[in-house]
Design brief:
Tumour Suppressor Smad4, mainly beta, 37% strand, 298 residues, four-stranded antiparallel beta sheet
Length: 298
């Protein structure tokens, strides 16, 4: 699976993974999905707990609450010096400060090789309510910090949505690419990845045809799109939408389940942005509305 595909699979699992029940009324299905979506954000380890991102430099990267550290942890959350991430040649070794109380998988840690999320799976170290992992973005490696007492989590007031409207559950024609072609997917870091797209979804709104290119393969398609509500009612950079793989030449695009990327909730996420061809010249007043998170401390 391509690099972004692996990352997006993680995002999906961290966001929501609740199947619809065919017997339940449509509105009840959507409301249940939305409740699960909100619960996934607020849970331990959810996106609202992401409280820091620190890019690694070659050599020693110290971590702790003292301002002299390269990785500065929230005040009062840990000792002044927790340890150091020693980074060299794309590999990261964590060395704990004696007596710091660092664990991994519930066991005390003195020294631990840290595996990045790509290709994954990543491993974590923890101290108190904090956890840290290594992430890889392009040629860069960084430490992602999660804090169970994150200000974003404490001050979260809930999600807001357009009213559920079954008209925005659209059956689209799916046109395969033979072979699957690569599309340019930018991200907020300024990088662009070439990701495989298996085809495009073609659909009509008010008699005009529109199309979206997904990323993914098999039973799950992932769409990153922007529309004329973006920057007004919805998140400026665009939204995410998952759909089941095509059946009998069609896919169902349920825009009632379109949702904001992690970057809407924390400034420390590294979100993909809509490909140029997925910027739609039409309003799609369905799905998740804009969220206004607290600004990071300076």
């Amino acid at each position: 699976m391509p690099r972004i595909g692996r990352i997006l699979s993680i995002i999906f699992l961290l966001t929501v993974a609740v199947p619809f029940c065919a017997q339940a009324p449509y509105r009840a299905q959507i409301e249940k999905w939305r409740q699960s979506r909100e619960a996934s954000l607020t849970r331990d380890g959810g996106w609202l707990s992401v409280a820091g991102l620190f890019w690694l430099k070659e050599g020693e990267n110290t971590a702790g609450t003292a301002p002299s550290n390269r990785i500065v942890l929230p005040r009062g959350s840990a000792p002044a010096r927790v340890g150091a991430f020693v980074f060299h040649g794309g590999k990261t070794l964590f060395r704990a400060e004696p007596g710091a109380g660092v664990t991994s998988g519930g066991k005390p840690v003195q020294s631990l090789e840290m595996h990045p999320d790509v290709p994954g799976p990543a491993n974590f170290i923890a101290i108190g309510g904090l956890s840290m992992q290594v992430i890889k973005r392009g040629s860069r490696y960084g430490i992602r910090l999660r804090d169970s007492n994150s200000r974003f989590r404490r001050e979260f007031k809930g999600l807001h949505w357009f009213p559920v409207a079954e008209a925005w559950r659209i059956r689209a024609r799916f046109v395969p690419y033979y072979p699957a072609k690569k599309i340019a997917v930018p991200n907020i870091l300024g990088d662009t990845d070439q990701e495989l797209s298996p085809g495009y979804a073609s659909f009509q709104i008010d008699g005009k045809e529109h199309r979206l290119d997904p990323i993914g393969e098999g039973n799950q398609l992932f769409f990153i799109f922007r529309d004329q509500t973006s920057g007004k009612e919805t998140y400026p950079a665009g939204r995410f939408l998952y759909a089941d793989g095509p059946r009998n030449g069609h896919v169902v695009l349920d825009f009632n389940t379109a949702y904001n990327p992690p970057c809407a909730f924390t400034p420390y996420a590294t979100c993909p942005l809509p490909p140029a061809q997925n910027r739609l010249a039409v309003r799609i007043p369905a799905g998740e509305l804009t969220h206004h998170p607290a600004a990071p401390r300076k």
